[in-house]
Amino acid sequence: MAGRVLEGRRIAFLAADGVEEVEYVQPREAVEKAGARTELVSLKGGAIRSFNHLDPSTSYDVDVAVAEADAGAYDALVLPGGVANPDFLRADPEVVRFVRSFHEQGKPIGVICHGPWTLIDADLVRGRRITSWPTLRTDLVNAGAEWVDEECVVDGGIVSSRKPDDLPAFCATIVEEFARR
């Protein structure tokens, strides 16, 4: 991650209550350090509560509600994990529309841990090689993905990782992929 390779780029972080704090904070810090401007997009305005595993942690102010967000205004998207966060997100039609719009516009998406649940509902995993938290394997395979147990996978503009231990590789790879596209 040399220099400010994301200078002038705008990155959306899509999260809801229950987001795994480290999977939100570390990637956001990585892209900001590389020069990107970031915004937290969520189900509604106000704030969301992150978690450290299953323990409530910090609150983060939402920059824009997903119904008001335009994927065209961003250069890339990050979907952090956590058990509850992606389950809340995937149930919202505006979230599905927003996520699908990134793919339709050829913009890269970074996703970690349980985050791919949202990609399943946006029908973005079919025919892709992807990784995730191990318990999502069956869901991803049933949705047409080739699930692999690897630290970080890049396929068709989607960067995926399994868990918090993979964050160094995930953060470096999203910066690299977001700079390339």
From TrEMBL:
Keywords: Hydrolase, Protease. Signal peptide: none annotated. GO terms for biological process: proteolysis. The keyword Oxidoreductase does not apply. GO terms for molecular function: peptidase activity. The keyword Transferase does not apply. InterPro entries: C56_PfpI-like, Class_I_gatase-like, DJ-1/PfpI. Residues 9-177 form the DJ-1/PfpI domain. Pfam families: DJ-1_PfpI. NCBIfam families: PfpI. Belongs to the peptidase C56 family. This is Protease I.
